[in-house]
């Protein structure tokens, strides 16, 4: 048996009228990516794409190339972020084309990013651009749209049921009622049973999903509650102050050692409910944020491979589900320094690490590689 690896997928790489209005003509995620600069010695910025270049997701050739690359290195499918606002969708073009064309022939599921749409792309969450408005009528309308995606033969299923994620289930005013409406509507539309997962993005969401009617949870990485102490409070912070940069550059950000973060994540206790685990290859969102960014320093493909291998091993012996699924955050979050797609620094190294983590399964979760790279 092999675990199914599902990578979160951001569809922000094409212009839309709303982004043109809010941030200027032609804005895409690449706008932020290319503005990033290194803030200290050995700080890896900017993250620039290699093989696929600064692509446009309106092109079918790009979407096919992504799927081919993912499949080659052991990724089972993509989890597309889905932006729904009371019947209006944003950044919908790439997934619409995937759904309507039948290409690429590559498994997928959806994650409803149900937060308000703000200037989060440039670190200004307080500026509201699109607000979520919830109602029973909208719940039914939403499921009526989702039913078409759920019925696609490529749609990923758990125990035979379409898998649907909600990024911030706690934002739903009455999650149990929403879930009830969704399940009723899915049955009425002929979809049948659906498998609902809440994403554990914040501390308040790390509880039994059954309490609000969901079937399981998906761990989000990074888990902000388990990062440990930032390096910033140590040598980086003092160096910044010494150079007079504490409030000018990286002294305003939070810097963590990637291997230490991995160690903290692996030490998390197992939940008493079904939760699909997640790993992240790296993290650095300074491309989006002038202040308050989080940087994982010293991330390498080797440490990532060890983390993923350990999580895959644990997943294969987990008795909560016959479905062995591990999420990876992310396939292409370039402005968060968080991507499996090849970059100019690492090339295919993270993809190769992903493929290697699926090979030569072992039952010893504290392998020598883990001890040497994650726990030192």
From TrEMBL:
InterPro entries per the UniProt record, alphabetical: WbsX
Domain of life: Bacteria
Segments traversing the membrane: none
Descriptive protein name: Polysaccharide biosynthesis protein
Organism listed in the record: Chroococcidiopsis thermalis (strain PCC 7203)
Higher taxonomy: Bacteria, Bacillati, Cyanobacteriota, Cyanophyceae, Chroococcidiopsidales
């Amino acid at each position: 048996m092999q675990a199914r690896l599902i990578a979160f997928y951001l569809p922000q790489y094409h212009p839309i009228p709303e982004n043109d209005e809010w941030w200027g003509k032609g804005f895409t995620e690449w706008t932020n990516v290319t503005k990033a600069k290194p803030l200290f010695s050995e700080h890896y910025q900017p993250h620039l794409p290699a093989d696929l270049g600064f692509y446009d997701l309106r092109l079918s050739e790009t979407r096919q190339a992504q799927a081919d690359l993912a499949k080659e290195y052991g990724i089972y499918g993509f989890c597309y972020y889905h932006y729904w606002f009371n019947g209006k969708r944003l950044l919908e073009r790439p997934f619409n084309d995937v759904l309507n064309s039948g290409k690429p022939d590559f498994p997928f599921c959806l994650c409803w990013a149900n937060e308000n749409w703000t200037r989060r792309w440039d670190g200004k969450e307080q500026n509201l651009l699109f607000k979520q408005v919830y109602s029973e009528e909208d719940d039914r309308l939403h499921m009526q749209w989702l039913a078409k995606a759920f019925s696609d033969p490529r749609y990923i299923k758990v125990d035979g049921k379409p898998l649907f994620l909600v990024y911030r289930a706690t934002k739903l005013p009455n999650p149990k009622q929403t879930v009830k409406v969704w399940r009723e509507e899915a049955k009425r539309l002929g979809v049948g049973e659906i498998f609902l997962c809440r994403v554990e993005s914040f501390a308040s969401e790390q509880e039994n999903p059954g309490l609000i009617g969901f079937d399981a949870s998906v761990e989000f990485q990074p888990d902000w509650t388990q990062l440990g102490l930032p390096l910033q409070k140590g040598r980086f912070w003092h160096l910044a102050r010494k150079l007079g940069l504490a409030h000018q550059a990286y002294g305003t950000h939070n810097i963590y050692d990637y291997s230490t973060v991995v160690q903290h994540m692996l030490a998390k206790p197992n939940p008493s409910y079904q939760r699909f685990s997640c790993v992240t290859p790296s993290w650095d969102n300074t491309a989006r944020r002038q202040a308050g960014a989080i940087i994982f320093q010293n991330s390498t493909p080797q440490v990532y491979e060890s983390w993923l291998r350990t999580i895959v091993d644990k997943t294969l012996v987990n008795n909560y589900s016959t479905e062995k699924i591990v999420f990876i955050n992310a396939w292409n979050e370039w402005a968060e320094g968080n991507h499996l797609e090849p970059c100019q620094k690492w090339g295919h190294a993270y993809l190769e690490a992903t493929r290697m983590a699926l090979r030569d399964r072992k039952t010893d979760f504290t392998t020598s590689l883990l001890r040497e790279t994650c726990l030192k």
